[in-house]
């Protein structure tokens, strides 16, 4: 599966902590868009899609959540619970995010601008496209 965790360098001193994310250092693709999810309601599961081309780096900058990943061959459950780590996701991975704790902010650095035609929002369609080598 084209997904892996990245641990960021923390720049800390007596004032507190800071993490910087730069292309070709912490982030393997040029960042074209940033968005973040917050105020996700209790027991809500969101996502339920894959991307045809998009690469992402997902960072839980506050709180925690779990992410179910499925590339059509294997599945993984990831916990994001620290701003010091990010989850890189290549294209062609079905994702569902759940178990958001109150106050969670899940930020995504994205390799492309928003394009609804890049989304596969039907799981059967996703499996069919994977068979054709998405
Ligand atoms: C992803 C996961 C982790 C926009 O207008 N522009 C944007 O850049 C985005 C990301 C969304 N939207 C609109 C489209 C929908 O009407 O915001 C609404 C909510 O988006 P969506 O239902 O896709 O949200 P999630 O939480 O299911 O998924 C999001 C991202 O869309 C997706 O790329 O990988 O977070």
Describe this structure in words.
The protein is built from one helix and ten strands. The protein is mainly beta. It has a five-stranded antiparallel sheet, with no helix packed on it. Strand 5 (65-70) and strand 6 form a beta hairpin. The model has no long low-confidence stretch (mean pLDDT 96).
Overall mean confidence score, pLDDT: 96
What letter string, H or E per element, gives the SSE order?
A: EEEEEEEEEEH
Largest sheet: 5 strands, antiparallel
For the largest sheet, list the strands in their spatial order. Answer: 1-7-4-9-2
Class by alpha and beta content: mainly beta
Bound small-molecule species: dTDP-4-keto-6-deoxyglucose
List low-confidence stretches. Answer: none
Q: Give the DSSP E fraction (strand runs of 2 or more residues).
A: 35-45%
How big is the Rg? 15 Å
Instruction: Provide the helix percentage.
Output: under 10%
What is the total tally of β strands? 10
């Amino acid at each position: 599966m084209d997904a892996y965790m990245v641990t960021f360098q923390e720049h800390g001193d007596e004032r507190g902590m800071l993490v910087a994310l730069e292309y070709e250092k912490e982030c393997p693709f040029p960042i074209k868009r940033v968005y973040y999810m917050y105020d996700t309601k209790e027991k809500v599961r969101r996502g339920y899609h894959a991307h045809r081309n998009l690469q992402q780096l997902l960072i839980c900058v506050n709180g925690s959540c779990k992410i179910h990943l499925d590339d059509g061959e294997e599945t993984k459950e990831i916990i994001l619970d620290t701003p010091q780590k990010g989850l890189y996701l290549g294209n062609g991975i079905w994702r569902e995010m759940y178990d958001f704790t109150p106050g969670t902010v899940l930020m995504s650095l994205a390799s492309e601008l928003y394009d609804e035609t890049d989304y596969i929002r039907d799981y059967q369609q996703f499996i069919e496209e994977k068979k054709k080598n998405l």
